[in-house]
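chain below, 144 aa
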Amino acid sequence: MGSEALEITPALAIPEAELVERFVRASGAGGQNVNKVSTAVELRFDLAASPSLPEPVRARLLAKRDRRITDAGVLVIDAQRFRTQDRNRQDARERLAAFIATGLAAPRKRIATKPTHGSKLRRLDAKRGRSEIKRGRSTKGDTD
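prediction:
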């Protein structure tokens, strides 16, 4: 575990001190390797209290309804895809970087548009057609 930072973009990097890693035993198939060796990684990153994240990025990430974010604003990533601890650690860091990268771009404002004249006519024609179909189903005037 070096002191290098996790680089998201050239302008944004997360220091090693802000990442908390815990190595645990993986679940699932794998036999003795899974039962004996703690290869799975639980990576924790405190989004709410991180001084490395710009405020708009932090707000966008915390606003996401992601099940990996706790009520306290801590992002928890479990990585157990691979057999080795080092590869799972690398996988968890890549997933953290990808998650933070999703919050970097501000969403574009939606430009309100009005329906075209043709689309209004098609909608009204469809409504008239449905009305005719339903009117034809009525039993008024039918004698059996």
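The chain has a mean pLDDT of 84. The helical segments are 32-36, 55-63, 85-102, 117-137.
thats it, cya
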